[in-house]
TrEMBL record:
Ranges where the DUF6630 domain occurs: 222-359
Highest taxon in the source lineage: Bacteria
Name of the protein in its database record: DUF4303 domain-containing protein
Domain DUF7821: 23-198
Length: 362
């Protein structure tokens, strides 16, 4: 019956979805009554998630905010708010409410996701901005919400808001939104676990894990990392030796551990990897990747295509083998490539953050 009425009144409260009013409203209550902003780590999400409660007009009532509003062509923050409301089909703020200086809250949740296949050519990660406004649907009380979305950095916060677009989270318009929405569900679960907010039992949880439980880093952590980046192609004796050495240096925070020549780089030379100049030919890629995977890899590419422009064609060929080309970040003018099993990429990136051994997708 609940689902019937949710659909009948077009509310964002699907009882099975974590992106619902019954989940987001208690998060808002915490932000409003306890702590207006926090930052924390969610398993499976690159870097930290930031959560902030802002409000019109107060959050814009400072010199920088006034300058941004004027630069955008508006007289005050309420005009900006009404411009945003147009995007999400919410009626404008009445003049009498503006004169009274009434406050209108919104939540800004920000985190990084892996890039889509198209964006991956240019960026290693994509920033997600989820801007949540509350409203009333067929009710005199607040019982619903709308989301604006952007994948750009808010260097000018007012312009950043104005450049957002309405997000239909049930029907993403592109792969970037699709990836962002999938991760947003993890983030919402993580927020609830972090704040001890009970999630309705009807909700299908994105993950069965505790998403905020910090993982203890042990020698076994490094063993798992080495196993994954080598795809298991390493002798047991060498595996134990390398994991023991890396863990010891990690605990002591030795200079050698972070040295791009003596530390991680030296480790990668013990596994099947390809140290390449930043400029390489397709023939080089075919030869060395074939060596790494133990079989011939040929891929089609446009004429006069070299170096990083080859990545999409290499990845398409490897994907047929359930593999992906990755690189250790040398911070130099060279690449240190290795091949990973496609299913292991997410875990490798998690372990990369834990161990501080910097791995990038291409």
């Amino acid at each position: 019956m609940k689902n019937f009425f949710s659909n009948l009144f077009n509310r964002n409260n699907d009882p099975e979805s974590i992106i619902s009013f019954d989940v987001i409203d208690p998060i808002y209550s915490y932000l409003y009554n306890e702590q207006g902003s926090f930052e924390f780590k969610v398993k499976g999400i690159q870097e930290n998630v930031t959560v902030n409660l802002f409000y019109f007009p107060g959050s814009f009532d400072h010199d920088e905010g006034h300058a941004e509003i004027k630069k955008a062509g508006f007289k005050n923050s309420y005009e900006v708010l009404n411009e945003l409301y147009k995007k999400i089909n919410i009626g404008p703020v009445p003049e009498e409410n503006i004169q009274e200086g009434l406050e209108y809250d919104f939540i800004h949740i920000q985190f990084y996701s892996a890039p889509s296949a198209e964006v991956k050519k240019y960026f290693k990660r994509v920033l997600n901005n989820f801007i949540i406004f509350f409203c009333a649907t067929n009710s005199l009380e607040t019982n619903d919400f709308r989301i604006l979305y952007s994948s750009t950095h808010f260097t000018d916060y007012t312009k950043g808001l104005l450049d957002t677009e309405y997000l239909d989270f049930t029907n993403p318009k592109n792969e970037t939104q699709e990836i962002g929405i999938k991760d947003f569900k993890l983030v919402l679960q993580g927020i609830c676990q972090y704040l001890n907010i009970e999630i309705p039992t009807t909700v299908a949880l994105p993950s069965a894990e505790n998403l905020i439980e910090e993982e203890t880093i042990t020698e076994a952590t490094f063993e798992e990392f080495i196993q994954l980046v080598s795809r298991g192609n390493i002798e047991e004796k060498e595996l134990k030796k390398q994991s023991k050495k890396l863990f010891k240096d990690f605990k002591k925070e030795t200079k050698e551990y972070y040295d791009k020549v003596e530390g991680h780089f030296a480790f990668f030379e013990t596994i099947d990897a390809w140290n390449s100049d930043w400029k390489f030919d397709p023939e080089d890629a075919e030869y060395f990747i074939s060596e790494m995977i133990g079989e011939d890899l040929n891929f089609e590419y446009p004429e006069e295509t070299y170096s990083h422009d080859l990545f999409p064609y290499i990845q398409s060929a490897l994907e047929k083998h359930d593999l992906e080309l990755m690189t250790y970040d040398t911070y130099g003018d060279n690449y240190l490539f290795f091949v990973a099993n496609k299913d292991d990429v997410g875990r490798i990136l998690e372990l990369s953050q834990l161990t501080k051994i910097e791995i990038n997708q291409l």
